[in-house]
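Dissemination and training. As part of the outreach component of the grant, students in the summer workshop were shown how a complex can be specified as a set of sequence lines and then modelled as a single object. The example used during the hands-on session is reproduced here so that future cohorts can follow it. Participants entered these lines:
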Amino acid sequence: MLAAFPARAQVYSGYRQFDGEHKHQVSAFLSGGSNVVTGFFLGQAGTYTYHFNPRWSISGGQQIQFFKQVYSLDVMGTYRIPIGKKTNVYIDGRVLFNRYQQWSVNETILNLSGYLETNYIDLRWGWSFVSYFKTNVKDSYKDYTDASYNEPLVMTFGFGVNIRPRSNPWNLGLFIRNYDQFYYENWNINWGLRFHATLTPQMKIYSEFNVRPAGSLSQLATRYETSLKVGLRYVW
Amino acid sequence: MFGSMKKTFIISLVIAAAALLSACDKVSPAGILMAGTAVEDRVKMSYKFYKDYLDEQVVLAVDKKDYSFIVGADSHLTTDPGRLDEMLAIGLNKDDLFYAHLGDLADTKPEYYFTLDSLLREAKDRYVEKHYKKINDYEYVPRENPIAEQGIPYEMITFPFFPVVGNHDITHNGWALWSNIFHSSFYEIDVLVVDPENIDIKVDHLIFLDSASGTLGKTQIDLINQGVLDGKYSDGSSIYRYTFVFSHTNIFRPQFFEFASTFTREETFFLLDQFEEWNVTGVFLGHVHTWDERDFNGVHYITMDSMCEKNNPEPGNYLIRVNVGEDGVELEPVKMNYTPKKKK
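and obtained this result:
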């Protein structure tokens, strides 16, 4: 059972900084798991990143979750601020579109967040604007009811820690956060284990085991979704 | 450098572990990552009790076209039962047909539930005294219809206080306390509206969902998908005139900054779809202690403020009376006046 992992660096250290040589990066993963509402799910996602220079980069991605019937597209622009030799701050601006097919919902998310990357730990903090609407509104409702909702701003936060320095060829770490590559939650915190290893100078394998409970801040965290993601990253 | 980093890391882990393992009456930090009371077990117990005891018995009938009911949320009863007592008195004085409570009735401590149990017993005594007439040592008949009805014992009279469980009711494995009084947090009730003049019966539908854990859980979602709460004729049309849903966790967030979990993405969209499928008239939710009211896809959603005297010590409109009639449903804010006594 494979699953969805943010091939992009936003979920673990060691991937984000331009190495000065390879301007192109592609990462792709298979994902799968079990969700209380949708049951078993299986999908794939891929992201392309282009580094203009050591400071600026842009990326675009897609996701198709077959059983969940969730389809996603996103674009993200990033500005990197180096602090010393081992620490970076990234400012990420992102637009994400999700189609929840089985409930006929289109969701658009604008996210602006900062990502601090040190040798062992990483932190993310920012805000999301989330808007969604139903696309199958009955004709009889259309004259008098709304079928769209703009959520109040949603805080984005994440924390990760690795057992090895970021430059190590492999690493293992823990994370806790309220988002994943293709969703942003309110106070539902997911957590898990992450891993990556260098296969060749241009290719890495990565994986992530993600526990996504419901009701975290109700202090009754309850099984909601468990997933596994396995992917490859290639630069040239 | 690495030595100090490791030391800092270990200290951080010890502090985090201490925070997670500590707890007080209202807060259980460990519950952020893992829960002590499972929604699956609660729903299985609730559904079993509903099928065995509530399914046939709890049907409310009114001999008129219109009726009303009263809704409150998040009373967080501790040592001062003033506000909950006021809610019970308001419903009795205005002859509301039933009470719906949206969870977080009491914070989890045995003595709070003893207080709650006593409060409800006293309220039932007042309710029976007002609406029933004692015909012998053991049996009562309704005052409105004293001739036709057979006498029923006190224990068989249903005091129409219908709650759902909230997260604070069960934070410290409090389901044992809550279920000992109310037994079920996933059930439905039909309201039969009898119009004797036109010999007409309408049926309204009350659905109570357990969302205390921030998810309905697999068992509850499976039961909903199996259609156990549906009520449809063979042609697909609904047998119900109005359907009302009562649950704890809110769907819509009234403000941007609040420390309360709402439903996850998929479950939010599942519920919005399901309520529309049930042709729901009104959904009543609590949890965030902030008022919000909106329409979404033909369904009216109300998120209620907390009626707890600690959260809202000043008098205010913390209850809603729902007036149900042939021509529609109207909401009426109901003011609560009780204020806690100031400690000298």
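The helical segments of chain A are 139-142. Students were then asked to discuss how this feature might be tested experimentally.
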